[in-house]
Design brief:
By secondary structure, the protein is mainly α. It has two domains: 13-76, Winged helix-like DNA-binding domain superfamily/Winged helix DNA-binding domain (Arc Repressor Mutant, subunit A); 82-122, no CATH class. The chain has five helices and two strands, in the order αααββαα. The chain has helices spanning 13-26, 39-46, 50-62, 82-102, 107-122; strands at residues 66-69, 73-76. A two-stranded antiparallel sheet has the order 1-2. A hairpin with a 3-residue loop joins strand 1 and strand 2 (73-76). Helix 1 packs across helix 3 (50-62) and helix 2 crosses helix 3 (50-62). The chain is globular. The two termini are 24 Å apart. The relative contact order is 0.10. GO terms for molecular function: DNA binding; DNA-binding transcription factor activity. This is DNA-binding transcriptional regulator YhcF (GntR family). Keywords: DNA-binding, Transcription, Transcription regulation.
Length: 126
């Protein structure tokens, strides 16, 4: 998986890294059990601070995408608590839908966009 950081983005670097790893899992570029680079190695490869990578890994661990083992390092381990994931998704979608309503985006347009994005992750997009 190739990580691309936009240093001009308003989004924090650790969140960009977190999001790219999650997308990598969803698109199966990274699979359950795969090791992630060490904090030091990834920081050097991208050209960012080690604390930034560590923060991204910590967030991924808290969210149930990664486990960290002192001997093995960080690796993909999907802790699937579906009900918790749905609750978190609902919280995130609430704000996104509110923003969409403020921008006059219809319910049908939101559904269409979600369907397209979901299908693109499954490799069956149109």
């Amino acid at each position: 998986m190739i990580v691309k950081i936009d240093f001009n983005s308003d989004e924090a670097i650790y969140l960009q890294l977190r999001n790219q790893i999650i997308v990598g899992i969803a698109t199966e570029q990274i699979k359950e059990g795969d090791s992630l680079p060490s904090v030091r190695q990834l920081a050097e490869n991208i050209g960012i601070n080690m604390h930034t990578v560590n923060k991204a890994y910590s967030v991924l661990r808290q969210e149930g995408f990664v486990q960290v083992d002192r001997r093995r390092g960080a690796f993909i381990s999907l802790n699937a608590d579906k009900y918790e994931a749905i609750r978190e998704l609902q919280e995130e979608l609430q704000v996104l839908i509110a923003k969409s309503i403020c921008k006059n985006i219809s319910c049908e347009e939101i559904h269409q966009l979600i369907d397209q994005l979901y299908q693109s992750f499954l490799g069956c997009g149109s």
